[in-house]
Prior knowledge:
This protein is 35% helix and 24% strand. An 8-stranded parallel barrel has the order 1-4-5-6-7-9-10-11, surrounded by 7 helices. The chain has helices spanning 32-41, 63-72, 86-94, 104-108, 111-120, 152-161, 183-192, 206-213, 224-228, 233-242; strands at 5-12, 17-21, 25-30, 47-51, 77-80, 99-102, 125-134, 137-140, 166-171, 197-200, 219-222. α8 crosses α10.
Amino acid sequence: MLRKRVVPIVLLDGFSVLKTIQFSQRRNLGSPVTIIRTYNTRNVDELVLLDIDASRQRRAIDKFTIQDLAQECFMPLTVGGGVRSLDDIELLLKNGADKVAINSYAIENPSFIAEASKVFGSQCIVVSIDVVERDGSFEIYSASGKEVSMTLEEWLREVEKQGAGEILINNVTRDGTMEGGSVDLANLVSSVVKIPAIYAGGIESPEDCARIAETSISAVGVSSIFHFTDATPQDCRNAMAECGIPVR
Length: 248
């Protein structure tokens, strides 16, 4: 059985770390270098770094920022934000990213996933999907406000068909709330696709992290409890191990 991963997620507004609540309320947390150095000491499995303003501002994530952060980062690094071309992906990979996350442009142009996977290898391509909970179901969330005609299940199948190597599913409704992750969403994603998937959104404790990891999801993305409580990635791994979940 594959070992489950605990994956810290770090959000940027270009140059500073921030934490959101439901992708709207923001709290600035300072220097990303400081955050990455802390995670280095905690032996995390990997790190996801997302510039959440890049797509909305129609710009690429700053390559010099990524270059500086990658030099500090001793773990595998996934980077996303404003990726709209093969050149954007190549630039990030050349400047220290191990994987590149695509979100908005993948929805606009699904064949871009296949193109990127063919050129760089599917293992480098992560498709990030933002989801909201509505009346007991899950819908794709568009930060731009553009209507998405596909259901979540349809988009998950399309992402896998196009050759993505991994999926990052962001639960916007629970983002930053620390009110508990959604087992239902984790189960839905892992039942629809066979490729690895990371669930993120609402994790309230190491025990809650283990609860999500008990599903067939491949990894749990965690942010707020690492910023605002004493919980550490090792605490999450310990809680998972106590539940009999194989962990890295």
